[in-house]
Write a structure and sequence with these properties.
The complex is a heterodimer. By secondary structure, chain A is α/β, with parallel strands linked by helices. Chain A has helices at 3-9, 24-33, 48-58, 74-78, 94-101, 115-125, 165-168, 181-192, 196-210, 223-234, 239-251, 255-268; strands at residues 38-41, 63-67, 79-84, 87-92, 104-108, 130-133, 138-141, 147-152, 172-175. The longest helix of chain A is centred in the C-terminal third of the chain and has 15 residues, at 196-210. Chain B is globular and about 95 Å long. Classes of the chains: A alpha/beta, B alpha/beta.
Chain lengths: 269, 713
């Protein structure tokens, strides 16, 4: 496939649903136009990934997403030689692909990746704007359309999974949090396909679970979980069952807390 | 002979023979022997075997006791299941072992009360069983955090919800548990929907008399609160409705009453509305209280309120005084343009959005919203829950925000000359004075001392108490080791590294030298972690906090042996800057030994919490240890505080500064605390996610190990 084919395959054609919380779209656009990389912080399920999709659509750029994991190496991002019928062939990794096609490259949960990978992104993120590919002896110059976006959740407490200062100080940071109740209700309505009254109840239920953060739960129900529950309800599942399966068990295994969340669900519906 | 009777006869013979074989002497002492044997013969074979087995066992201890057991055993099996009978036998045997024959016989002979208690146990709901759930549930519902406690009277004093230790009103345990929940929710609703708001309470106390009008008010409030719950939590309201009545007549009486008081079900109805209606209902027949209604004890509420209101008011004023300088820096000349009203200039105000019970409180300064910390938000919510709206005096920042006057008079130096120098090597450390924004050089004098060895029995007791937990901690830590990383590109290893192989192949085809690192290898001991435990030995830890700290350390040390991480334990305390002390419990170089255990057991509360200097000293010790990851974990029960001026913001800022210093040298500080108010200062000191608050002291040992695992994997 040529670069153009790659790029068109990664274009987002339909507008992804997104409700702005503040000025994040303006900030993202300004950073993009000024070729500044962007760091998205926030708890899981608050809309970081959706936001990136939305912006890629709005800016009409292809989007390359990499879900980082702890075995992700620099070679996985940049590319490697593969053997095909006795011949060797270079295959670009997602990051090199994104650079070549001038895409938005989104590294999701970047702290999960191995430490050496973050070093690869450094020359991309300052005024050098280059991606050296050592194995090819090639240095890709980054086109102005390319943008790097990374996300991470500062709530994780492992000291081994913190973002180094040398990395984080290269980014424009946008902080995300769960939306205000009225906005969250609109989101659950739109995404879950629920009537307003039901969505309001779900959001209230979500707020109750967030009261438990730090008192047993590491996180309360995210907007994503509420939307999931909304979809189940829309699909004909009883609200209490939907909350149980989509939220309670997703949040915890502790029997006491499970019971609490279960009872909360039956309390608000 | 028909089959059944014949079978019975054979059973009888068999049981008789078996019993004679195993408990000859006991049999002779058994009253009504023939009857008893006949009764046993009628039981299920399983029960017979059980009785024979235990008769044999008890006989080995005492014949007399076996005889008493035999005499009661058939009756026990008729009333109880096997597990319950076994409990009964074990109880008797325990009594025999610990207290002697007389007590054991008493257990066997008093079978009736045992059966009664057991049946009650089957249906009753003990508060202990549901307290954990209720605590979470009430907290999740929102509002001020309420403690669940047990008391013969069922009520709330706005700090706690008091429930009976045991509830057995309904015929099944599940029903009783639900009744307990409904009661807790109703008492929560009193707090949440303004029954105990200061003005309403005072007015009610003034207007109503205990015997005649309080009961009327209590029922009117029930009507209002049920409507509020139904509006907010319809599912819960349905459940409460189903559990509310004794019978149909009770239900009908309540329906009549609620219809008459219909005005109170309107959204936004307040306790004042209920009060206003009391006079109209003085001659209406009152229905009996709802099953989960509890009592109203206004005097208890008043006591709690009088304790809390001034405390929270002061805390709010203090918080505002610290907020004010940050916000006062906006240009003042443009007030008129910025603020909706000129009178709002340079003032805090609180606006409230949403209805009763679900209101969001927002703090504004000169009309501009002020971002609130979680703790300040809670404080504001709690105050609003008490007073409804804030008067100006609440919103007047406290005068003088510093811990002591800026000129330094009355500061820590004042105490410098009062105290004798301590013995041992003296380390001098600077201290950060936030008011002056500079260090006080060589201000703190610190000595290291050994903790005197304590009681070895404590160690044994802890091991015994937590033997299950110790095992599971051990297993979790072992799992950390086994999930060790796969190393790529090794010369030797357990699997072929395909990436490396492909690259080698490429190199070969291109005529370059082939590398020999073609394997992956699982390395099991790749950890390089050094951790310093800094244990609060201030006077406030006296009692169970100190016990919990020591228990946690004993469990953790054992588990850390598994991991092979390098670790040290030091206690800290002090009294003024001249006598700061850290206590060696275990140094990095010392192996874990019984001496270390005894020192852990010897950790005892001393004086105050001068934390900054301890952080600096222990941070320095930790910095000298070669390790990739260095952790300083503080076990503490409260904020830094020392004799003199080392309190409030001064102590917090110094500690924060010390933590920043060690962070710069590559150490990760983390704090485990049991201080419920820690939210107000720990994020500032340690950073948003570098601490954890353990809400129950008893959970500390488990939590410490769990946190350690999370931090280092």
């Amino acid at each position: 496939m040529s670069d153009i084919d790659h790029a068109s395959a990664r274009m987002i054609t339909d507008a992804p649903y997104y409700e702005p919380v503040g000025k994040e779209r303006e900030v993202f656009t300004a950073a993009y136009r000024n070729q500044l990389p962007i760091l998205l912080k926030g708890p899981t399920g608050c809309g970081k990934t959706r936001f990136v999709h939305h912006m890629a659509w709005q800016l009409k750029r292809p989007l390359v997403t990499v879900a980082c994991h702890d075995d992700l190496t620099a070679a996985d991002l940049v590319g490697r030689f593969l053997v095909k019928g006795g011949e060797t062939e270079w295959v670009d990794g997602p990051l090199a692909q994104a650079v070549r096609m001038g895409a938005i490259c989104y590294l999701d949960e970047v702290v999960e990746a191995r430490k050496d990978t973050t070093v690869v992104i450094h020359p991309l993120c300052d005024d050098r704007r280059i991606l050296p590919i050592d194995k090819l002896g090639e240095v890709l110059t980054v086109p102005p359309e390319f943008s790097l976006v990374i996300s991470y959740n500062p709530g994780y407490q492992s000291v081994l999974k913190d973002l180094k200062q040398s990395t984080r100080q290269r980014f424009v940071a946008l902080e995300f949090n769960y939306p205000e109740p009225a906005l969250e209700q609109r989101i659950v309505e739109a995404e879950g396909g629920l009537p307003a009254e039901m969505a309001a109840r779900l959001v209230k239920f979500g707020a109750h679970t967030r009261n438990l953060k730090g008192a047993g739960l590491e996180e309360g129900a995210s907007t994503r979980l509420l939307v999931n529950a909304g979809k189940l309800i829309n699909g004909g599942v009883a609200p209490a069952v939907a909350c149980d399966t989509a939220v309670a068990h997703a949040l915890t295994d502790d029997p006491e807390l499970l019971q609490t969340i279960h009872e909360l669900a039956s309390a608000v519906f | 002979m028909a089959d059944a009777p014949r079978q019975n006869f054979f059973n009888l013979i068999r049981v008789q023979k078996d019993l004679e074989k195993i408990a000859g002497e006991a049999l002779m002492r058994t009253p009504r022997l023939q009857e008893v044997v006949a009764e046993i013969a009628e039981l299920e074979r399983d029960a017979q075997d059980f009785i024979l087995h235990w008769t044999e066992v008890i006989t080995l201890s005492n014949h007399e006791l076996a005889a008493h057991f035999l005499a009661q055993a058939p009756a026990a099996f008729r009333a109880l299941d096997k597990a319950a009978v076994e409990d009964w036998v074990i109880k008797a045997m325990d009594a025999f072992d610990n207290r002697g024959l007389g007590f054991a016989i008493e257990v066997f002979d008093r079978l009736e009360p045992w059966i009664e208690a057991h049946t009650q146990n089957l249906t009753a709901c003990a508060l202990d069983q549901v307290a954990g759930f209720l605590r979470h549930f009430v907290r999740a519902l929102g509002g001020r955090t309420l403690v669940i406690a047990s008391d013969p009277q069922t009520y709330t004093d706005t700090e706690k919800i008091f429930l009976p230790a045991m509830l057995n009103q309904l015929g099944d345990r599940d029903g009783n548990a639900r009744l307990m929940k409904c009661t807790a929710v109703y008492l929560w609703a009193q707090n949440r929907y303004g029954t105990w708001r200061y003005r309403a309470l005072e007015e009610a106390i003034r207007q109503l008399d205990a015997a005649l009008s309080w009961p009327v008010y209590q029922r009117l409030e029930a009507v209002r609160l049920r409507a509020a719950i139904a509006h907010e939590l319809p599912g819960l309201a349905r459940e409460m409705e189903a559990m509310a009545y004794l019978d149909d007549a009770h239900r009908a009486a309540w329906t009549r009453f609620a219809t008459a008081a219909n005005a109170l079900t309107a959204p936004g109805a307040s306790a004042h509305d209920s009060l206003a209606l009391v006079a109209d209902f003085m001659h209406t027949p009152l229905p009996a209280p709802l099953c989960w209604q509890g009592e109203m004890l206004p005097q208890k509420v008043r006591e709690a309120l009088f304790r809390r209101v001034p405390r929270e008011k002061e805390a709010l004023q203090q918080a505002l005084s610290e907020l004010q300088p940050e916000h006062a820096q906006h240009p003042e000349g443009e007030e008129g343009e910025q603020t909706p009203g000129a009178e709002a200039a340079n003032r805090f105000s609180v606006s409230r959005q949403g209805g009763e019970g679900e209101a969001q409180n927002e703090l504004r300064y000169d009309g501009q919203p002020v971002p609130l910390t979680a703790e300040l938000q809670d404080l504001l919510d709690s105050i609003m829950q008490d007073v409804g709206e804030l008067t100006d005096d609440y919103l007047t920042p406290a005068g003088g925000s510093g811990a002591y006057p800026l000129d330094g008079s009355g500061g820590p130096e004042t105490y410098l000359n009062d105290l004798p120098s301590p013995a041992g090597k003296l380390y001098l450390y600077p201290e950060w004075d936030y008011a002056r924004q500079r260090f006080r050089d060589a201000f703190c004098a610190l000595t290291e001392q050994d903790v005197p060895e304590g009681d070895a029995a404590f160690v044994e007791k802890t091991r015994l108490k937590y033997r299950g937990l110790a095992k599971s901690i051990q297993r979790i830590f072992e799992a950390i080791l086994s999930e060790a990383q796969r190393q790529r590109r090794q010369v030797h290893g357990d699997e072929i590294d395909l990436d490396a192989l492909v690259e080698a192949h490429v190199d070969r085809l291109m005529g370059r030298e082939m590398p020999d690192r073609l394997y992956t290898h699982f390395r099991k001991s790749g950890r390089s972690v050094a951790v310093m435990f800094m244990v609060d030995m201030s006077g406030s830890t006296k009692g169970w906090i100190n016990d919990a700290e020591r228990e946690s350390l004993i469990l953790l040390c054992e588990a850390l042996q598994v991991l092979g991480d390098s670790y040290a334990i030091y206690g800290f305390s002090g009294r003024t800057n001249k006598r700061c002390e850290v206590y060696r419990v275990k140094t990095f170089n010392e192996p874990f030994s019984t001496r270390v255990e005894r020192r852990i057991s010897g950790i005892a509360p001393k004086a105050y919490t001068r934390m900054g200097v301890a952080v600096r000293h222990l941070g320095k010790l930790l910095g000298d240890v070669p390790a990739r990851t260095r952790l300083l974990i503080t076990l503490s029960d409260g904020k830094p505080e020392d004799y003199g001026s080392y309190r409030g913001r001064y102590g917090i800022e110094d500690t924060r500064h010390a933590l920043l210093e060690i962070k710069r040298s590559g150490i990760h500080p983390f704090c485990i605390t049991i201080d419920r108010e820690a939210q107000s200062y720990l994020p500032h000191m340690y950073g948003a996610s570098n601490f954890t608050v353990v809400d129950e002291v008893a959970k500390l040992p488990w939590k410490v190990a769990d946190i350690y695992r999370r931090l280092t994997t």
